[in-house]
Amino acid sequence: MISRIAEIRSEAAAAIAAAGSSEELEGLRVRYLGRKAELPGVLRKISELPPEERGKVGGAANRARKELEELLGARAESLDASELDSKLAGDRLDVTLPGAPPHPVGHAHLVARTQRTIEDAMVGMGYTVAEGPEIEHDYYNFTALNHPPGHPARQLQDTFYVQSHPEVLLRTHTSPMQVRAMETQPPPIFVVVPGKVYRRDSDATHSPMFHQMEALAIAEGITLADLKGTLLTLARALFGETREVRLRPHYFPFTEPSVEVDVSCFQCEGTGALPDGSRCNICKGQGWIEILGAGMVDPNVLGFVEQYGYDAERVQGFAYGLGIERVAMLRHGVPDLRRFFDNDLRMLEQFA
Ligand SMILES: [Zn+2]
Fold first, then answer.
1. 25 and 119, same structural domain?
2. How far apart are CA 317 and CA 108, in angstroms?
3. Range of the domain at 14
4. What is the pLDDT of residue 156?
């Protein structure tokens, strides 16, 4: 009997080691340890043996059963692991393969690309890029920019107010970030602020939502000449290496002096006429195109951030604000600003 138990044990051990799947292994478990199997049968019939054999046979049969259970468990674990591995290998999906049929690759919106072109030019001159809230306090949007309550210039930028909080509005320009940026760091500061702004306007060159880029430079000894040099670099990055800029006196509440900035026309090279003698349609024969407003930061504005180190007697600076859509329209000949926001692919795909 003892030798039969050893025989069963070694036969079962060999079969378990050779099992190639967990299904096959389950069959072996039933065959060697199941209810009708020989080894459990031996254990059930221990009591029928002569008393002097019971201990030896029972011990051997129990050890054999325990050993086979352990072998089955270990083999099951390694089979499970390798079956999982091969399942994973079989199910592998290469997400870098092209789709079938291949999907067209998208591209950034023309407004976003224009914004990045401007940012690149400004970062190249040492500016950092910052963003600010679109829902703004009256204080930052108007008051701290020298538009006190009742100032007529507020009317030019009529906007959307929060009904229950009349001091909260959708910002009308990116300029509120001038004061916000100065509150976070002492001078010198060189920052550009791109973002969405809102006004109650809608026609071919106005949309209730559009994008602006604000630039602010404050340090000791900054002059209007620095502003002009900065604008010339920017204009050449946007409209070509041979561009020139000119400044015309203007009025903005938060800069003094204020200027409107023209760039020489990139279509007629500033002559106002096309090669066939007809009037240039982009600059309307003027040779110059207005691109943005700018000026030296009004000392009154610095007064709002004096406690952050902006002493108007010690530091000066300039700011400009430009409409990103306007630049994109000029560069690409887009006749209506609202087309940027129609989501018409025939329009957007022209600028891939
Ligand atoms: Zn022209």
1. no
2. 33
3. 2-91
4. 66
